[in-house]
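Notes continue from the previous slide.

Worked example: a multi-chain complex. Inputs as given:
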Amino acid sequence: MSEIADKVKKIVVEHLGVDESKVTPDASFIDDLGADSLDTVELVMAFEEAFSVEIPEDAAEKITTVKDAIDYIEKQKAA
Amino acid sequence: MFRLDGKVALVTGASGGIGREIARALHAQGAVVVLSGTRQGVLEDVAASIGEQGGAERLHVCAADLSDAAAADALIASAEEKAGAPLAILVNNAGLTRDTLAIRMKDDDWQRVLDVDLAAPFRLCRAALKGMLRRRAGRIVNIASVVGVTGNAGQANYAAAKAGMIGMGKSLAQEAGSRGVTVNTVAPGFVQTAMTDVLPDAQKEKLVGSIPLGRMGQPQDIAPAVVYLASDEAGWVTGATLHVNGGMAMV
């Protein structure tokens, strides 16, 4: 797993207070990890801060799973 | 009831008549109070006067010019640094007026009032909410005005800002509710302060005539409403506007 993936996972575990084993790539923040809409906004803001990237509103809406977040950040960092 | 022991509270406009009374009342309930305003010297005097009865170590001063967006953005963090603990209570009390009839109102009269009375409170709410949501606790009390609901000739700018504050508070209350953070508004009527001292006597007499309780308000009439909304006991009250106006407008 990449460094970015590790960090994303850590942020999700910390923020949502869920067990690390549940934070699989396909896990949906809302459906699988018990997040509400405010949690997802706070997660996106935590990602922005941790990775020094800006995630615009339309992109943020599409980030619904752990993998979505990792892919988006990796793409931004590669660009 | 309504004890606030050890809770950090920030009061903007704390050098004004209502602001200093709010600071005094929160402090009397045990809160650690950070006083903000534009004039450092006056704030220090207010802090010294509140601290005379004891608890001076629970008073801090943090001057900021809220017409400066960057200063407003930074105020929550500097207040928390001064107090040495996260913010539990935010009281957006600072405000100014630039009264004149609309047909004579300059863009600058409009913009300055909207900036200080509405944009700055939003900036402070935004900054405060980030931490409050994370901590699952917090109280925001915005000080609006009866004219935000009734309107008032000569105050199109001020009434718009205060009405905006009420709508903003209701929106924030809905956003923050799931985290136990409450956002409420206190809407004072005509209170005897420097802001209303400038009104002509004839207008003041007419105003008092329209108040069922027969007198202008005092800052001491307003501060207890803020204490209540800041307390744990008000935990099931959010998005509310508490009108404290001697019955002048029953809404």
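Summary box: Chain A touches chain B at residues 36, 38, 42, 45 (CB under 8 Å). Residues 53 and 68 of chain A are 15 Å apart (CA to CA).
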